[in-house]
Amino acid sequence: MPEETNDNWPAFDIKSWKDIPSFNGKIANEEEAISGIAIFCIKDTDSSHDVYEIDLPQLAYLLDLENNTQQLIVAIQAESTTQGVIIGYRNPNGGSGACYLEELIFLNEQEIFALIGV
């Protein structure tokens, strides 16, 4: 489900990933998504749509199984739906997107240090 958008989400230095603002603890509304506070807003949801509890931001690899590639991203939003957990992310090269939780591999502290030294 990787869905990349080229909007007004600017590029950033990956070493500053911990400083990327995240959207935690509530369901995003349309205004928050339009204004760039949240990556996405899911409309017309049922009662099973809820916040997905996860510490954010988190550094992860977004997997593209069709092309057998991975892309480093920062997860900043998480919501649980009947279709699965949707993660909103920022791309260090600019832009944002959304994917399913299963499409991500989260990095641990040792992996992050080995990758970017932070």
Key terms:
118 residues, mainly beta, 2 helices, 7 strands, 12% helix, 34% strand, globular
Q: Can you describe what's shown?
A:
The chain has helices at 30-35, 109-116; strands spanning 3-5, 50-51, 58-64, 69-81, 84-90, 96-100, 104-106. The chain is mainly β and 118 residues long. It has one domain (3-116). The longest helix has 8 residues, at 109-116.
Concise overview:
With 118 residues, this protein is mostly beta strands. Helices cover 12% and strands 34% of the residues. The chain has one domain.
Strand content: 25-35%
> How far is it from the N-terminal to the C-terminal residue, by CA?
29 Å
Structural class: mainly beta
- How many helical elements? 2
Topology:
Blueprint: E1 3-5, H1 30-35, E2 50-51, E3 58-64, E4 69-81, E5 84-90, E6 96-100, E7 104-106, H2 109-116
Antiparallel strand pairs: 1-6, 2-4, 3-4, 3-7, 4-5, 5-6
